[in-house]
UniProtKB/TrEMBL annotation, chain A:
InterPro entries attached to this UniProt entry: 2Fe-2S-bd, 2Fe-2S-bd_dom_sf, 2Fe-2S_ferredoxin-like_sf, 2Fe-2S_ferredoxin-type, 2Fe2S_fd_BS, Ald_Oxase/xanthine_DH-like, Beta-grasp_dom_sf, CO_DH_flav_C
Organism: Lacinutrix iliipiscaria
Pfam entry (one): Fer2
Domain FAD-binding PCMH-type, residue spans: 164-351
Protein name, per record: FAD binding domain-containing protein
SMART domains in the cross-refs: CO_deh_flav_C (SM01092)
Domain spans labelled 2Fe-2S ferredoxin-type: 1-85
Classification via PANTHER family: XANTHINE DEHYDROGENASE (PTHR45444)
Keywords on record: FAD, Flavoprotein, Iron, Metal-binding, Oxidoreductase
SUPFAM superfamilies (UniProt xref): 2Fe-2S ferredoxin-like, CO dehydrogenase flavoprotein C-terminal domain-like, CO dehydrogenase ISP C-domain like, FAD-binding/transporter-associated domain-like
From TrEMBL, chain B:
Protein name per Swiss-Prot or TrEMBL: Xanthine dehydrogenase molybdopterin binding subunit
SMART domains assigned: Ald_Xan_dh_C (SM01008)
Source organism per UniProt: Lacinutrix iliipiscaria
Matches recorded under SUPFAM superfamilies: CO dehydrogenase molybdoprotein N-domain-like, Molybdenum cofactor-binding domain
Pfam families: Ald_Xan_dh_C, MoCoBD_1, MoCoBD_2
Entry keywords, A to Z: Molybdenum, Oxidoreductase
Length: 471, 774
């Protein structure tokens, strides 16, 4: 039985764990405030909150798009829909902010925005305007042009300025952000005995953010094996200059990891280019790697970190493989049917090493790259001592640029080196024309993003003019 | 000096805007919207035993159906029945303007996504599974995807239309400059977040009630009756509200409602049909792509003396609303400029795309993009700023439009000059020059975009509406009109009118669902005219009731009728409060057997148009405004951001400044999306490639302009606008056209070799390729 609390009500259901949470709340529970816009996580109209009980008995709430989330992942959680945020006969602070600023027109996307902003109020992230906007980065509105919604977000941030203790929801209840019953949730969740779901063999699903876009009907109709809660696939550890990340970690887990952010100071700037907050809250890193998309953002990211991955089979036997050798052909990679990716390892950049990630798509955020690229480069006394460059969208696999990386290593860091490296890069890639751009465009963009790494990382040394003609 | 003064003006104006926003009426639907309690089609409670339907559509853009095998699908457990054209009791015909569109394909398919059958099952999931089990064999026929190709092959929807004023042939002789060119503007997906859908229920005597997500309830009713072969009074259409329409549900909400009704008719059971997003994207038409050519002639002092344009409209596989949309392209071909000699021609080209349809602006934006392109090209060739040409040709009072209407209450120059002064255009341009001089990797560009948009259905007979107003015994008021609420705030405006006439709190008024049994034979909610037409009808109904009630009060208070007024739920005589309250008055009226219900009919006066001469006075009035768009292009990556859009807009006397500002901001974002990132892609076989939200991108929170400033133009308003509050739905979309030219100007600042291109949208791909074009 899948057991969880839905708003203020405890649910025990024997529904198929692969059905979407969206269908369950809308059609099984008749909670129609959660809307269907796209069923692929791209519009946010179905945003709901997932509350997870922490070891210290606090709760962490995160927003997700329920359309690409398996019902089984709700097991042991507090699920909050728009109805679960409503107060009796009055508006919450978030709802009031939306109303007062004319931030709702046709109203169809509105519950998604309200839930996401309520999630922001409940979250432990710092209260500022940028974080409030990040919270609604996965919500699309076709009516307002967003300026009124920005004002509403601003009003929410202003109200939250008086909220100090982020682990205690009393203030939020007193100030009409959430209904009273939220106070009882930690205890109620603790009282529900959460046993591991008795799961059938079937398709492995972690966050589901890609699988449910591709094959939601199939997953709803067949056995799935949910792995999002598997402890042995979790966690981020930093030891002796090395980082190990469990493949179940989400993009948000990286976002929220303070130590990782201090070592990679631009991490959040880079991750902000990866989908939306709702999706980052669900998308597992392992899922991104085995999706094997030639433009998988996190894959490109880890390729340039020269990562290795640990693979575990059903008998618990482990092996490791360099990520750059993992991919063989389009969507083909070195993994057997009974194997799972367990963890990702990479060496953290030291003081001489630099990392950068670039991505260009039609829309800067919540879009799939036309081309993306990452670089890890170590420079001592103007000499490149180590370099790893990856480029996505230019080959059948997420591309580690072996020759370009090898060429850079040992060279002095000059514009001549970089221009010559680009010549190598151009020979290593074979982009095709598709809906994300023509092959000529991707080739040019590959060059430009390669140059961008150097203007970003060494702004005192290089400008765009050092590499290209115009201006 | 100049800068400081103007910034003070701007500050004062912005403060006033912000004060107005706090004070003006909020959208009255927002309470249920923010709580998730507003009801859309898919939220309406359904009857027990309701069936669910999924459409089976053509997997080819053009071909002969050789064979279809439904047997495996029919055998699937839970499948109730599959309907095809053979099950249609009436006509297999849904075309609104021209009868050229079947509900279901018979022997041929004409576009990829063309409905062939309806699968009805116990659940939507089963119906979808059954769809995968249908085998179809289609013999390919040649596929046309572009308008030009259709023109070459002589494939048209109807006869071309042409407007002319003066004599262009002769006028070119007097021109110092003549330029010719071609332009392309792509289609645009509506992307209402609520997909198309309908829910049909059987009533007694074979009557059917349909809850539909439509902008045009009467069109749905009429078409259902036609397809079922029953009379219209047996069909009731009810619309609660729409999760966005933008024109996409004016004509194209109809087929889904008809299909649900057809299944209900046969099965005597409720049937729900809600398209999933992929089906919606694949099966429905979009804004029309246009391939156009122009010839513009100017004098030395930059006056446009002659302008010719030929517009090739990619209409898709059936007429839908294309002829009307083509007509509006001609109406707006010269935007807000006076051109004494004009010849324009539009050809509605029949292709194998889904029938393209209404989309906010209705062909107007496509026309305006061409003349703006012509001006940009001329400016670049002559070596002046485009704004010099724009400014030299703005409309004046009493100028003649190419369709013969004399321009009155013209605000083209006032809005242009206000924008220039309030926002200090010289300072803005200077700042951009400085920025571009000192920055290598980023360049800024600016463009001005004036607009003039005609308000009314261009088809004169459609400009009418009715309202039915009840006053209940306790003094509360129910209003029914043909207006469909889809986010534009028309419900609020209707309630405002009644509340104002009777001087009661707005909470005492209620808008009923839009229903064909209460208000019949209606025009769709479209053409920016919904509030004007339905509002005027509501006002008339309320005023008639008021007169009647004044008579009652006059008798009761023994005071002359003209001394009676209503204020704050009380009756006043000669400005003095009487003992009679609003509720008392209603009760007295009831006892005196006075009718407390009124039905009023409004038809826009003054308008007319003669299609044989292509001359007349089609518009009640025009809406004007000017936008300044500023963009920054990242010359490394080819991406761009909009720093700001600064607008002076002609609202007339706005009824709700907050609601109207929302219309401007929303339309602007949609216009910018059309001109920049929204890219519809079909392959040569006519298959939609941008077939999901992952491949078709509309503006998100981070891609809209950082700063949008909208200053109302001070005007008297217009008598034909409801309470002098001018229509605001469509006009501001065309400010977005400025985005295209702003980006182009930034590219030019980086790459002096760049040849101007007039091929929208200006995607990051085009920008990068242009930056590095040799």
């Amino acid at each position: 039985m899948i057991t969880f609390i839905l708003n203020n009500k405890t649910i025990k259901t024997s529904e198929h764990s692969g059905m979407t949470l969206l269908d369950f709340v809308r059609y099984e529970q008749r909670l129609t405030g959660t809307k269907i816009g796209c069923r692929e996580g791209d519009c946010g109209a179905c945003t709901i909150l997932v509350g997870t009980l922490n070891k210290d008995e606090t709760i962490s709430y995160q927003s997700i798009t329920s359309c690409i989330s398996p019902l089984g992942n709700a097991h042991g959680k507090h699920i909050v829909t728009i109805e679960g945020t409503n107060l009796k006969n009055k508006l919450t602070a978030t709802q009031e902010a939306m109303k007062a600023n004319y931030a709702t027109q046709c109203g169809f996307c509105t519950p998604g925005f309200v839930v996401a902003l309520t999630g922001f109020a409940l979250s432990y992230s710092e209260n500022n305007y940028n974080n409030a906007l990040n919270a609604i980065s996965g919500n699309i509105c076709r009516c307002t042009g967003y300026k009124s919604i920005e004002k509403a977000a601003h009003q929410v941030v202003e109200k939250l300025k008086h909220y100090n203790s982020k682990t205690n929801f009393k203030w939020l209840i007193e100030n009409k952000f959430i209904p009273e019953y939220f106070e009882s949730i930690p205890k109620r969740l603790k009282d529900i005995e959460i046993k591991d779901l008795n799961q059938p063999k079937g398709k492995y699903v972690s966050g589901g953010t890609d699988l449910y876009v591709q094959q939601a009907d199939h997953l709803a109709d067949n056995d799935v094996h949910l792995i999002a809660e598997k402890e042995y696939l979790k966690g981020i550890a930093i030891e002796n200059g090395n980082c190990t990340i469990g493949t179940n970690s989400t993009v948000s887990d990286l976002w929220n990891h303070s130590k990782l952010n201090s070592i990679l100071p631009n991490l959040r700037t880079h991750l902000k280019l990866v989908s939306s907050e709702q999706i980052r809250n669900m998308a597992s890193l392992g899922g991104n790697l085995v999706n094997a998309s030639p433009i998988g953002d996190m894959t490109i990211f880890f390729l340039a970190l020269n990562s290795t991955i640990t693979i575990i089979n059903s008998e618990g036997k482990e092996r490791t493989v360099a990520l750059k050798n993992f991919y063989q052909a389009y969507k083909t990679y070195d993994l057997n049917a009974d194997e799972l990716l367990k963890s990702i390892h990479f060496k953290l950049p030291n003081k001489n090493a630099f990392f950068n990630f670039e991505k260009v798509c039609k829309r800067t955020h919540l879009d799939i790259a036309s081309v993306n690229s990452a670089i890890y480069i170590s420079v001592e006394n103007d000499t490149i001592t180590e370099a790893h460059v990856s480029l996505g969208g230019v080959a059948a696999i997420p591309k580690y640029l072996h020759e370009t990386s090898a060429f850079l290593t040992g060279k002095s860091l000059t514009s001549e080196t970089i221009l010559e490296a680009n010549e190598r890069l151009q020979k290593e890639i074979a982009p095709i024309s598709d809906v994300r751009g023509s092959s000529d465009y991707k080739r040019l963009l590959g060059r430009q993003l390669f140059f961008a790494h150097f203007t970003e990382l060494f702004p005192k040394q290089f400008t765009l003019n050092d590499f290209v003609q115009h201006a | 000096m100049l800068k400081d003064t103007s910034n003070n003006i701007l500050k004062t104006k912005l403060n006033a805007v912000s004060k107005d926003l706090k004070e003006s009426i909020k959208n009255l639907d927002s309470y249920t919207h923010v709580r998730g309690e507003s009801l859309y089609v898919d939220d309406v409670n359904i009857r027990q035993g309701t069936f669910h339907a999924v459409v089976f559509d053509s997997p080819k853009a053009h071909g002969k159906i050789k064979h279809i095998d439904y047997s495996k699908a029919e055998a699937l457990e839970g499948v109730i029945r599959i309907f095809t054209y053979k099950d249609i009791p009436g006509k297999n015909e849904i075309g609104g303007i021209i009868p050229d569109e079947p509900l279901f394909a018979e022997n041929e398919v004409h576009f990829w996504g063309m409905p062939i059958a309806l699968i009805v099952a116990e659940t939507e999931f089963i119906a979808r599974k059954a769809r995968d089990l249908i085998d179809i064999n289609i013999e390919d026929l040649p596929v046309i995807t572009t308008a030009k190709e259709a023109k070459t092959k002589g494939s048209f929807i109807n006869a071309p239309r042409s407007f002319s004023l003066g004599d262009t042939e002769n006028a070119y002789k007097d021109c110092d400059f003549i330029f010719e060119g071609e332009t392309f503007s792509n289609g645009q997906e509506h992307l209402y977040i609520e997909a198309q859908g309908a829910y049909a229920e059987p009533l007694e005597n074979g009557n059917i009630k349909i809850t539909s997500s439509t902008q045009g309830p009467t069109a749905v009713q009429k078409t259902v009756a036609q397809v079922l072969g029953v009379s219209m009074h047996k069909i009731e259409i009810d619309v609660t509200r729409l999760g966005g329409g933008f024109g996409g549900k004016e004509d194209q909400a109809t087929p889904w409602a008809v299909m649900a009704a057809l299944a209900t008719h046969h099965l005597n059971q409720s049937v729900k049909l809600i398209l999933n997003r992929h089906d919606d994207l694949r099966m429905t038409g979009k804004r029309h792509p246009y391939e156009s050519s122009y010839k513009i002639g100017l004098s030395k002092d930059l006056k446009i003396l002659a302008y010719e344009a030929e517009f090739l409209q990619n209409s898709g596989a059936a007429a839908d609303l294309s002829p009307a949309i083509a007509e509006r392209t001609l109406f707006h071909a010269t935007n807000s400029y006076y051109v004494p000699n004009v010849t324009t021609k539009v050809l509605s080209c029949k292709t194998n795309l889904p029938p393209n349809t209404a989309f906010r602006g209705f062909g107007g934006p496509q026309g305006m993009f061409v003349i703006e392109s012509a001006i940009a090209k001329a400016a670049s060739e002559i070596g002046v700023s485009p704004r010099q040409i724009q400014e030299a040709n703005l409309l004046d009072e009493n100028d003649t439009f190419s369709y013969g209407q004399i321009a009155k209450q013209v605000e083209a120059k006032t809005s242009w000059n206000s924008a220039k002064n309030i926002f200090n255009i010289e300072a803005l341009e200077r700042d951009i020059e400085n920025f571009n001089r000192t920055n290598k990797a980023f360049k800024k560009g600016l463009a001005l975009m004036p607009i003039a948009f005609g308000i009314s259905f261009t088809n004169t007979p459609m400009n009418h509406a009715r309202a039915l107003v009840h006053i209940y015994l306790d003094g509360s008021i129910g209003i029914s009109t043909a207006a469909v609420e889809m986010g534009q705030g028309v419900n609020t405006k209707m309630m405002q009118i009644a509340a104002e006439v009777f001087s009661v709190p707005i909470e005492k008024t209620k808008i009923e669902t839009t229903n064909t049994t209460r208000v019949a034979n209606t025009s769709p909610s479209a053409a920016s005219s919904t509030a004007d037409l339905n509002g005027k009808a509501t006002l008339m109904a309320c005023n008639s009731l008021l007169e009647r009630l004044k008579k009652v009060a006059s008798e009761d208070l023994n005071a002359p009728e003209d001394s009676i007024s209503l204020k704050d739920e009380c009756v006043y005589t000669n400005g003095e409060k009487s003992k009679l309250s609003w509720t008392d008055l209603i009760n007295k009226a009831m006892l005196k057997r006075v009718a407390l219900t009124e039905n009023a009919h409004y038809a826009t006066p003054e308008i007319h148009f003669d299609k044989t001469k292509e001359k007349g006075h089609p518009f009640a009035y025009h809406v004007y405004g000017t936008a300044i768009v500023i963009t920054t292009v990242d010359c490394t990556r080819g991406t761009y951001e909009f720093d700001s859009v600064k607008i002076v807009h002609d609202y007339g006397k706005s009824m709700s400044k907050g609601i109207d500002l929302g219309q401007v901001e929303g339309a602007l974002a949609q216009g910018i999306g059309w001109m920049t990132m929204e890219e519809i892609a079909y392959n040569k076989d006519g298959r939609l490639l941008s077939n999901a939200l992952s491949t078709y991108k509309i503006p998100d929170l981070f891609s809209v302009p950082k700063n949008v400033e909208v200053i109302p133009l001070e005007t008297k308003g217009h008598e034909l606008a409801i309470l002098k509050s001018k229509a605001v739905g469509e006009p501001p979309l065309m400010y977005g056209i400025g985005a295209y030219f702003a980006i182009q100007n930034a590219i030019k600042a980086y790459n002096p070799n760049y040849n101007l291109k007039f091929h929208a949208p200006m995607t990051p791909e085009k920008v990068l390729m242009s930056l590095y074009q040799n």
